[in-house]
């Protein structure tokens, strides 16, 4: 396995190409295609799609029925085929071809010196500005047929799948323009039969609003089919007698835009992106309804589907580092786009608030009981509870907030907790847990009780456990329920005390929120005016603090306890968490993605409001090291997740709930995942 090659991690590079067309000049157009084909090969592209009828131009009208033009097409195809002999890229080119007594609007698939097959346009527009039935016959009934192209007989039909035998999961289907606009596109059936990359050659002229209609159709097709959809439209050079053309190209993958070019280009343009074929396979495996649809849509499904013919080919993908041509989010739970982040925060916050609101109403309207430390998680849980009271028309004083200082509680965090509770108007009390902790450590015969500075896991968990012991008993005493504050990231890493500890509560509003999203939620609450100025001031100060459990007393000359020193940077661990739970990716692939996302702090986008001075970079050795920590902790702590209290799912990235997104035996071994991680080099 060549770790640094994108092809070794389940990616395939595709290109959507548009280029100036020379009307009715197949020879000139063939040369233009060849030039772009060579550029695609230099970019290590596996599959490139060109616009509809690009060998002649879409707008040549009655010239489609002229022998000179039709004969020139065969010569152009032959020239492209010959030029492709030493190129790795599969070329899909639009051309009119005669079949029997009719002309078909076709996509010609060419690779390494050969024409592999021809996909005719199934559905012809014949309305408004379109008049295709004047020249062409529909191709929807041309299944299991053959056609002669440039002197060679090749398979013809909308029933062709082109499968790369040396690029796992790369199965291509081709449709032409209007085929995408009908209720049941040919590509939908092809996807059920195993096609993962769906290509569309389009000659669609542009009118106001049509580009968004295309985008909607391409995005929805990729999402519904759990596929990549590659779209290339005609542009410069087409006749402007009555129409105009914009050369739109784009690639979507399961509803996500991977790339697009500027419209109305001057000269050729290519959208070149890396499609995650392994993601497509995972999506289809996870969504049983995808295969269920195959049962009612006809055909047996899969490459053996008798309704489809499979043409095998060999790409010969390159080794070595060819980069990664797709947007990678450093923070997959946190959008980089400001508007999208604001929407996500609005939805996440209100999911939490409405979830707690419903739980309180359904069990008799008890009082929320929360332990407040002055840290991010308890702060966010507290403002969720306060907002739930507002929505229920109850006084915020019904929220019972307790700060419970221990051996290492800092004066700053304690002051934040006090000020926040006062500004919110919740009921606040302080309970010093140290006397109870002293007694328990003495009863346990712990060295600390004898004056020794032994700060082991027992020392830490005595404090963490006592805090929740108090909270549960306080809830019993005062007619409340304990509202949990632990977040999704902590649950994944097992960074919580089991049983009577922060792993447990009556209802956990934060269980679906990853650590990297919490700060943005609080920042959104500040900016959205959910609370008054005094509350916002305290929230802003809390955002600046380092994440720490404050369980081990500070010692002179020793760095104070910091959570990320133990479990790793949450930025990296949330990156891993998302790709494990949402996409089922292997440690080696996650390391590859993390390398591209994190090795250069200056490259790529950062979420809005992320301080410039706090933008880190991580080399491959660091990424691998913390990945091992994640894998070991993730497997070792499943028993904590198997007994989680209720809490709302917030992110599409998933939750750790054993009743929802994540079910796993507590005694599963991490051996295979650690072995896969060994594939990752140290640098």
Characterization of the model:
With 683 residues, the chain is α/β, with parallel strands linked by helices. α2 links the parallel β2 and β3. α8 packs parallel to α9 and α16 packs across α18.
Write out key terms for the chains shown:
683 residues; alpha/beta; 20 strands; elongated
Write the layout of secondary structure elements.
Blueprint: E1 11-18, H1 26-42, E2 47-49, H2 67-83, E3 90-99, E4 102-111, E5 114-120, E6 145-149, E7 152-156, E8 160-164, E9 171-176, H3 186-192, E10 197-202, H4 210-224, E11 228-233, E12 249-253, E13 256-260, E14 269-276, H5 277-286, H6 288-297, E15 309-313, H7 338-362, E16 367-371, H8 376-392, E17 400-403, H9 411-424, E18 427-430, H10 434-444, H11 457-478, E19 480-484, H12 488-493, E20 507-508, H13 515-528, H14 533-543, H15 563-567, H16 570-581, H17 587-598, H18 620-636, H19 638-641, H20 671-677
Parallel strand pairs: 1-2, 2-3, 8-15, 9-10, 10-11, 16-17, 16-19, 17-18, 19-20
Antiparallel strand pairs: 1-14, 3-4, 4-5, 6-7, 8-9, 11-12, 12-13
Helix pairs in contact: 1-2, 7-8, 7-13, 8-9, 9-14, 10-11, 13-14, 16-17, 16-18, 17-18
Summarize the structure.
The chain is of the alpha/beta class. It has helices at 26-42, 67-83, 186-192, 210-224, 277-286, 288-297, 338-362, 376-392, 411-424, 434-444, 457-478, 488-493, 515-528, 533-543, 563-567, 570-581, 587-598, 620-636, 638-641, 671-677; strands at 11-18, 47-49, 90-99, 102-111, 114-120, 145-149, 152-156, 160-164, 171-176, 197-202, 228-233, 249-253, 256-260, 269-276, 309-313, 367-371, 400-403, 427-430, 480-484, 507-508. β2, α2 and β3 (90-99) form a beta-alpha-beta unit.
